[in-house]
Amino acid sequence: MARPHEDTRPSHKQIAAELRALILSGDMAPASKVPSVRDLITKYGVVNQTIQRALKLLKDEQLLVGKAGAGVFVSGTTQQVIDPASYMPPSPEGAPYSWITESAKRKRQASTALLDVTENEPPAQVAEVFGLGKDSTAVLRCHLTLLDGEPAELVHSYYPADIAHGTALVHRRPIKGGAAALLAEMGNPPKNAVDRVSVRVPTPEEVRLLELPEDVPVLRTFRIVTTDTGLPIEVSVMVKAGHLYELQYRVFHQP
């Protein structure tokens, strides 16, 4: 008979994992008080230091907050729900990038910081989408999005060189209204998108730029944007903290 797989993580990480699951499921509601350290010691059969280490992990992840003399509470907000479809349509002429306007609807102040614009050989996944051969290049625009001044998402957006050349896509400055609006002006309006979502361990760059705490996985969205004729005009790799965001998709039945 096969031996059951054992969780070999340290006790404080196992306890943090159980509490995290309760928080993210809503069973420990925002602003609710966490059981006392004494109660947690009794429940899990561990020493005080183990409970304190577990609670620190969740405080570092912004899921718990300590209040002097009152105890430890679930943060007022836990995961932010992101609806990718709301960011797809190009911004109206003269309007800010949709990330900013959509965030404002949730009473969050959003901004973007352009980190780099380069032209080089793209990753294999991107090259496959664009149908590029070896040594072919694509234009990369890398930026960091922020919510209320805190890093939210690291985005690497790739564009076919023949579409990007001679346009603002190759300039190292923000594009008014965002790339989607520019592509529409160029005669390549984004119409459809396919997302591939995965979870993985963050790279050192992602830990640094997203200011991630210890052992937090990231949500990775690989998005292919096409015109109404199916022409791929943009591929974006979007990475965000897995414990702070969840993605919401709508699925429609087609008879």
UniProtKB/TrEMBL annotation:
In terms of SUPFAM superfamilies, this protein maps to:
Chorismate lyase-like, Winged helix' DNA-binding domain
Q: Which UniProt keywords apply?
A: DNA-binding, Transcription, Transcription regulation
Q: Where is the HTH gntR-type domain?
A: 9-77
**Gene3D superfamilies listed in its UniProt record:** Chorismate lyase-like, Winged helix-like DNA-binding domain superfamily/Winged helix DNA-binding domain
Q: Does the keyword Transcription apply?
A: yes
Originating species: Streptomyces chrestomyceticus
Source domain of life: Bacteria
Protein name, entry field: GntR family transcriptional regulator
InterPro entries in the cross-refs: Bact_HTH_transcr_reg, Chorismate_lyase_/UTRA_dom_sf, Tscrpt_reg_HTH_GntR, UTRA, WH-like_DNA-bd_sf, WH_DNA-bd_sf
